[in-house]
Amino acid sequence: MKDAFGTPQSLLVLGGTSEIGLATARRLVARRTRTVWLAGRPSPALEKAAAGLRDMGADVRTVAFDALDPESHEESLGKIFTEGDIDMVLLAFGVLGDQARDEDEPLAAVRVAQTNYTGAVSAGLVCARALQSQGHGSLVVLSSVAGERARRSNFIYGSSKAGLDAFAQGLGDALHGTGVHVMVVRPGFVRSKMTAGMEEAPMATTPDAVAAAIETGLRRRSETVWVPGALRFVMSALRHAPRPVFRRLPL
Amino acid sequence: MPADSPADSRTRASAPTSPAASVPPAAAPPVPSAAVSVSGWGRTAPTTALLVRPRTQEEAAAAVRECGERGGIARGLGRAYGDAAQNAGGAVFDMTGLDRIRVIDTTRTSDTGAPAATVVCDAGVSLHHLMEVLLPLGWFVPVTPGTRYVTVGGAIGADIHGKNHHVSGSFSRHVLAMDVLTADGSVHTVGPGSALFDATAGGMGLTGVILSATVQLLPVETSLMAVDTERATDLDDLMARLTATDHRYRYSVAWIDLLARGAAMGRSVLTRGDHAPLDALPERARARRAPLAFRPGQLPAAPSFLPEGLLGKASVGLFNELWYRKAPRSRTGELQKISTFFHPLDGVPHWNRIYGRSGFVQYQFVVGYGKEEALRRIVRRISERGCPSFLAVLKRFGEGDPGWLSFPMPGWTLALDIPANLPGLGAFLDELDEEVAAADGRVYLAKDSRLRPEMLAAMYPRLDDFRALRAELDPRGVFRSDLSRRLAL
User: Fold this and answer.
1) Is the peptide bond before A228 cis (omega within 30 degrees of 0)?
2) What domain of life (chain B) (predicted)?
3) Do A9 and B486 touch (CB under 8 A)?
């Protein structure tokens, strides 16, 4: 069960090698979380992530999960919930893709969309249903500021996150009153392996800062969390910028 | 012969020969139920459950039998601060439908020859209702917490204590018998000393559903309190005053200013007293004409939406300053209404809303006598951190109670309300738990919403007995709550 501050005792991370996912898990394990499920494609990295959390004293299990295989989600995720309540599901998988290549190779672009959006739709719905029958729990969805308005430089990734973001918002409304809380997290540029070698955007943040913001959001039962918080206002301005102006901005 | 209670006029005929008994169960109207969001008085961590409202003991038994795989838990008026009376995804039995006062027996005498009385009532009867009915007859409930809006079932389940614990003990010490509905649907009538009774007193509803109880009453001559008020300049002064003179008062409590620092740390206002005897009322006072009238006043309810952060350090600091200054240095024999003395907050319905959407936690712990150093350390830490708490209360407990998970033990207990949105509060309270456990103390489960499960065994030495009895009586885990899941009770 979650405590009065929204800190979960059990956590399921979809995308078990995600840096933000693991930073969040570490932060929560340091507080109340004792049971962690890391769902991801079986790999040494996944096992290493599990070992790291075990060293902190958590009871960690890994489970094979592939965002690109939505047909398996019902079974692979469903069985986690039969073993006990999950207080929080963190939907943290996603790929950035390579904008230039993806524009040339439509199939590569589709994989970005399938991972970030289609995979999240099926996994999110499977988890939402399980949480609903528990009568409690949080579904935390990692969206991105890139989904707020499509930009020339990464609109394939951005559009997939836009779809995910809209899906999660709608799901949150659908689950309102069921005891399940859906929280959409919109980080800006996060310094991580996903963005390694890229030129940093203004207001760049870190996985740890995102994790801290998630913990605060859980306490406040927020529906939307921006990281850093000031991005809420920046993006609000950008969203309303006329397109001819927006197009010319160095973004 | 037992005197009929005025409330008995509301008793519905339920003799086995009545025509209703011949109707097959399938035709009986369904027990009303609805899926609703449920939270404790602190309004933190709400979860959703099927709220079932049984109106008879038979319906309660049916609700327990049919509550499904996520189990059920009884709930009274929802004054437990944390998650003790919520059950995510399962059933919550709203017991307030069982609200009959069955018998008031005023013919008894106590061991010392003094008049005595008992009341037999359903578990869903509130202490407020008992007071309405009993006070005009010259009787009072044996123990009342800071609110009248708790049910008798809840009072036993949490084994509540009041300002008189140092002389009277907890509520269940005054319970002569009770009916408990266990997981198999059977009803057990148990008295003190039996395992089921002692596990249920303070058992947070996890041993079964309390259906009714026989409670001993306290004779009173008036419905007024004679109250002595004095100020203590700091924590040591307070502890010295309480230690030296507490035994002279039936009721005793100290309001403590936890925002005061330095030399003023622990400055407090002590209010202590007893039920006023008839001759304490002034000759021509209005109260003389109806000395047993029960007239709690009520202010408008707190609005349903209030912004966060209303109770910050500045506003609470100002309140505390005024509250301390307003109290007389010393005043004796002031007559106060029962509601003013015991239940000042009941005058503002829904006062829990003033903490805003994210709610508040109440932290109450006890450390034994001889562990005063731990108490000083904790008070110092709270005041240095500046927790904005305007409802901090210190009192001395008397002898411990037999309930296996009963909270009180001989020692000092401090209770404080803190807004849940205070950053870092969770970690801070965890540290205080360490101090409490190291001093062989414990925190109160009826108020808890955040304890680390690992701490429980150290705080409640009879936890294993409790778990063993539950495993025996309820192998399928029918009785479950968010509290029991969170703490693996």
Assistant:
1) yes
2) Bacteria
3) yes
- What CA–CA distances, in Å, run from B345 to B300, B302, B348, B351? 12, 11, 6, 7
ipTM over 0.90: yes
| In-domain check, residue A53 | yes
CB interface of A with B, residues 151-210, below 8 Å: 177-180
**Residue B126 DSSP one-character state:** B
The span from the CA of B255 to the CA of B326, in Å, is 13
Q: How many CB atoms lie within 10 A of CB B468?
A: 12
Q: Which residues of B touch A215 (CB under 8 A)?
A: none
How far off is chain A from B89, nearest CA to CA, in Å?
4
pLDDT one digit per residue (tens) for chain A, 251 residues: 999 999 999 999 999 999 999 999 999 999 999 999 999 999 999 999 999 999 999 999 999 999 999 999 999 999 999 999 999 999 999 999 999 999 999 999 999 999 999 999 999 999 999 999 999 999 999 999 999 998 899 999 999 999 999 999 999 999 999 999 999 999 999 999 888 888 888 889 999 999 999 999 999 999 999 999 999 999 999 999 999 999 888 77
Domains along chain B with CATH numbers: 101-221 (3.30.465.10), 224-450 (3.40.462)
CATH number of A221's domain: 3.40.50.720
Q: Which of B46, B421, B427 sits opposite A179 (nearest CB)?
A: B46
pTM score of the predicted model: 0.92
Interface test with B, best of A2, A3, A180 (most B CBs within 10 A): A3
* B421: chain A residues, CB-CB within 8 Å: 219-220
Three-state secondary structure along B277-298? CHHHCCCCCHHHHCCCCCCCCC
> Is there a contact between A219 and B49 if contact means CB atoms under 8 Å apart?
no
